[in-house]
Design a protein that fits this description.
The protein is mainly alpha-helical. The chain folds into 5 domains: 5-73 and 181-229, Rossmann fold (3-Layer(aba) Sandwich), CATH 3.40.50.620; 81-179, Glutamyl-tRNA Synthetase, Domain 3 (Glutamyl-tRNA Synthetase, domain 3), CATH 3.90.800.10; 239-312, Orthogonal Bundle (Glutamyl-tRNA Synthetase, domain 2); 314-364, Glutamate-tRNA synthetase, class I, anticodon-binding domain 1 (Helicase, Ruva Protein, domain 3), CATH 1.10.8.70; 366-468, Arc Repressor Mutant, subunit A (Orthogonal Bundle). The chain contains 19 helices and 12 strands. The strands form 5 sheets. The protein has a 3-stranded parallel beta sheet. The protein has a 3-stranded antiparallel beta sheet with strand order 4-5-8. It is elongated, with a radius of gyration of 32 Å.
């Protein structure tokens, strides 16, 4: 069997849209699953939009998602010669012709057709004229007038197009540049792409492309047109629905593994499994299991899945991903081991890396500032003896294990007659500045002896200064 060759062919438009990312992902997963190759091609013929910057944005987003390519990036803008040769070949073989009909004339044809309720079609004026190249002429494909063109689509099944509905479409503009349909077919066949997975907004182009393959006597690739990604109102996902760029989700603290898991599940399924690691996706993905119905992008579900990925990720692997989010808060994590321990107290309670960084703040502060409300409620003179006693006990502890800490707290409870909650909340405020945090023993263990004692002493001073 020949090996699978898939491609992702974005037209740069400023950023990588999550819908585009899903197309890239399906092609990449299918290639990786089948031991084939994944090719990246930049369709940059629209000079106005295809800036260096928007191309870089695509690379950056793919790189972050971990979608790597085996060949390319190829740039359509650098392949004009190849398109030219194929256009000439089509003219020579009688499958295409030069057309000198003016834009006004084409407009008239369109209006006439619309007046009779017919589809606007080129009327074939130049089809048999045998014109040669000349200024202002376009090249049109000589499309069959009768019969049908059948798209055998892996996702959609067979779609039959009446050739009478199609027309002699332009393959080369008067400035010599190829149109989308011509460039895509020439690229796909010269790059030996045998599996085309793309959004179903391209279904209407496909009969034209199939006719071009046939005229060029090239074998057809397998086509799989995937339903679009929709917003919650079932219209195509756009900025109206919220963030649509891959990078925006990275900034929100979504993990790349969570986003690819989520995008894969938008349209593809494997039983009722929701959580997939990257390796599982590669092992289980099959283009035949992509469904016909459109996936609705739900940022809330994405966050829930992200929480699961945060939980499943080794703290030491999550650490480098959290660092930039800490940096945004002005926090610097110098010690990898400390950071991994910090993460292990937060990974079951954070939906995003943004949330996790917020939750980690107190671990990295030199000085804790007490939240007014929390301090008012919990740092009261009545707890001063308990804090004092706890400081003494902790100072004597060799090792901050959960067991040792528990017994220190029990002793303080016995001495002061206070219940655990009455001691734990003031300690929490002393150590974190707030009344919400991971488990008290966990944070004591991670913060370590000197930080804990320093912070408890500061809380004690605070209580004393307030009580005069
Ligand atoms: N450049 C096209 C797009 O971004 C994709 C072409 C294709 O996949 O055939 O929509």
């Amino acid at each position: 069997m020949t090996s699978i060759r898939t491609r992702f062919a974005p037209s740069p438009s400023g950023y990588l849209h999550v819908g585009g990312a899903r197309t890239a992902l399906f092609n990449w997963l299918y290639a990786r699953h089948s031991g084939g190759s994944f090719i990246l091609r930049i369709e940059d013929t629209d000079k106005a939009r295809s800036t260096e910057e928007s191309i870089r944005a695509i690379f950056e987003a793919l790189d972050w998602l971990g979608i790597d390519w085996d060949e390319g990036p190829f740039y359509q803008s650098r392949r004009m010669e190849i398109y030219r040769e194929h256009i000439e070949r089509l003219v020579r073989s009688g499958h295409a012709y030069y057309c000198t009909c003016s834009p006004e004339k084409i407009q008239q044809m369109r209006e006439r057709a619309m007046a009779t309720g017919a589809k606007p079609r080129y009327d074939g004026t130049c089809r048999e004229k045998g014109l040669g190249p000349q200024p202002g002429a376009v090249v049109r494909f000589k499309a069959p007038y009768t019969g049908t063109t059948v798209l055998e689509d892996v996702v959609k099944g067979n779609i039959v197009f009446q050739n009478s509905e199609l027309d002699d479409f332009v393959i080369c503009r008067s400035d010599g540049t190829p149109t989308y349909n011509l460039a895509v077919v020439v690229d796909d066949l010269t790059m030996e792409i045998n599996t085309v997975i793309r959004g179903d907004d391209h279904v209407m182009n496909t009969p034209k492309q199939i006719q071009l393959y046939k005229a060029l006597q090239a074998p057809l690739p397998v086509f799989a047109h995937v339903p679009m990604v929709l917003g919650n109102d079932r219209s195509r996902l756009s900025k109206r629905h919220g963030a649509t760029s891959v990078t925006a989700y990275r900034e929100m603290g979504i993990l790349a593994d969570a986003l690819i898991n989520y995008l894969a599940r938008l349209g593809w399924s494997h039983g009722d499994q929701e959580f997939f690691t990257r390796q599982e996706l590669i092992a289980k993905f099959d283009i035949k299991a992509v469904g016909k119905s459109a996936g609705i992008f739900d940022p809330v579900k994405l966050q829930a899945l992200n929480a699961d990925h945060i939980k499943a990720c080794e703290p030491s692997q999550l650490a480098p991903q959290l660092v930039p989010f800490l940096a945004r808060l002005g926090l610097e994590a110098r010690d990898d081991q400390y950071l991994a321990k910090v993460i292990s107290t937060l990974n079951t309670r954070s939906k995003t890396l943004v949330e996790m960084a917020e939750g980690a703040r107190f671990y990295f502060l030199e000085e804790i500032t007490f939240d007014e409300k929390a301090a008012g409620k919990f740092l009261k003179p009545a707890v001063a003896p308990a804090l004092e006693s706890l400081i003494q006990k902790l100072e004597q502890l060799e090792e901050f294990s959960e067991k040792a800490l528990e017994s220190a707290f029990i002793q303080v409870m016995e001495e002061t007659g206070l219940k655990l909650g009455k001691i734990a909340q003031p300690v929490r405020v002393a150590l974190t500045g707030t009344s919400v945090s991971p488990g008290i023993f966990e944070i004591i263990e991670v913060l370590g002896k000197s930080r804990v004692i320093r912070r408890l002493k500061k809380a004690l001073e605070f209580i004393r200064s307030r009580s005069g």
